Amino acid sequence: GKTAADIEKVTIRTHEACLRIIDKKGPLNNPADRDHCIQYMVAVPLLFGRLTAADYEDEVAQDKRIDALREKIVCYEDPAFTADYHDPEKRAIGNAITVEFTDGSRFGEVVVEYPIGHARRRADGIPKLIEKFKINLARQFPTRQQQRILDVSLDRARLEQMPVNEYLDLYVI
């Protein structure tokens, strides 16, 4: 029964590269700023239950609750995550998150060492990529054209045999 309004503090335990690259305070003036801000990437899903490309646009970013929640998000380096990030045998992208509420309760820490998209999670990531591909095709193409593109794109042998110009022709409306 809790909402984002009940959040007192969010703590992110992470690696040095995260702090250096995407730990951002202050105004985020455009989608490029927003997609390089871990606080934004955490606040939006806590508020809306999603994070899509559209969520980086001005229309969503204007919601004052996002910046209010960003102010409650604190990041700090875990040296073990940094070591695993640089270890060529692991190449982990470890992060952990804890959410504390105004009533004193909290969610237990959630740790992810290999997020979706990491090479070690390829089997988990491919279905999500296919779903994302379908969503984006549906935004641009009629149903039959979507299916033609999918049929070739998801059949590796067929795709490898198809000349590039023929594949690109599938995308012409």
What is the compact description of this entry?
This protein is of the alpha+beta class and 173 residues long.
Question: Can you put this structure into words, describing what you see?
Answer:
With 173 residues, the protein is of the alpha+beta class. The chain folds into two domains: 4-112, 60s Ribosomal Protein L30, Chain: A (2-Layer Sandwich), CATH 3.30.1330; 122-170, no CATH class. It is 48% helix and 16% strand. The protein has ten helices and four strands. α3 crosses α5 (64-70). The longest helix has 19 residues, at 122-140. It is globular and about 60 Å long.
How does the SSE layout of this entry go?
Layout: E1 7-14, H1 16-22, H2 31-34, H3 38-48, H4 58-61, H5 64-70, E2 73-77, H6 79-86, E3 95-101, E4 106-112, H7 122-140, H8 143-153, H9 156-161, H10 164-169
Helix pairs in contact: 3-5
Features:
173 residues; alpha+beta; Bifunctional 2-methylcitrate dehydratase/aconitate hydratase; MmgE_PrpD; MmgE/PrpD_sf; lyase activity; MmgE_PrpD_C
